[in-house]
Amino acid sequence: MTTRIPVVENILSANDRIADRNRVLLDEKGVYSINIMASPGAGKTSFILKTLEALKGRLKLGVIEGDLATSIDAEKAMAAGLPAVQINTGGGCHLDAVMLADALPALPLSDLDLVLVENVGNLVCPANFQIGTHLNVLIASIPEGDDKPYKYPGMYRGVQVLIINKTDLMPYVTFNMNYFIKGVEALNPDVTIFPVSCKSGEGMDAWAYWITEKVRAGKQG
Amino acid sequence: MTTRIPVVENILSANDRIADRNRVLLDEKGVYSINIMASPGAGKTSFILKTLEALKGRLKLGVIEGDLATSIDAEKAMAAGLPAVQINTGGGCHLDAVMLADALPALPLSDLDLVLVENVGNLVCPANFQIGTHLNVLIASIPEGDDKPYKYPGMYRGVQVLIINKTDLMPYVTFNMNYFIKGVEALNPDVTIFPVSCKSGEGMDAWAYWITEKVRAGKQG
After folding, report:
1. Which residues of A touch B68 (CB under 8 A)?
2. What is the pLDDT of residue B11?
């Protein structure tokens, strides 16, 4: 027996309609945007700060930080000189398009090239909600283990870019890269992968080059 | 303006009534049980396998593995000689009491002293659902970073035991233990903390001794 629950479908499509409006606003302002997802502690905020560093002088960035309760991450971003807005979900396990719609006008969009949205640390719920950004990015991290694509398929399936962070910890943990990549490719053969270390900075140049091209192509498109 | 949504309250209390029944069943069978929560990759399955090793000859264990889709963890547990049941949530972000009620009869409860339930890897949603176990255990891990209690307060508030795993990685990551513990104690001053390394086995003896006492006290209670 299959039971359809139409209420859930309606809520999702309302979210998707707001997501579309967010995208239209971003396109009008000429701003490219990224939804950054990961499990807690994979390094989302560090990745944002390292991206800022790598793009200095090339692109103007803004940040929207999603969190359950605190403003720790927005404060870090502002300390680094980034225009930043904090969204507190009040315990909610993911961002949605309405939250982003409320946050976007608080950024100086006309002055920006790229907005990085840091979702709530969670490998399950954020995968089910489009928020209206142009690109979905997942940050995996080496100490999380090589079985995560197999265990969180929805998240690995729904992204265009996969950052593999904390490569500096490879010598100290058991992580079979072939097994990991095999799992990723089975779910998402077209995903673009960047191995990086936000600690040492290794790999950030390749990502910075790639995203700069993406943003420029978006502006011409 | 505050809006009450009575439907959510009813669903939660239905869950709690089933959780109570699970607890009654476990008590009748003389089985102590633990709900193990953590973010993805903090080491829940490794912790279960190391606990099995540390308790060998002392307590008879069974395992219930919660996951979105695979049976990787249950297979690991069975390979280690543990009676194990896999719950697949079908994409759901946490276990609930009904899932546990369905899984418990599949274990040989009359032969067991302790059932370890591995929840879905997630620091948000599992905190909101009692499943009927006797003890809530959270596994934090060093590479996740020292700000997690501040960012996931609901989870840190709702547990009786906190395992700090991957202490072997302390030399290789930035982790301020004082800042971490300060955050934990502000939310949960009575929590019992065990620093461990599931890789080296360090700290597992203290946990094994403590949980053995707990299980024995439960049987006499």
Report:
1. 124, 151-154
2. 67
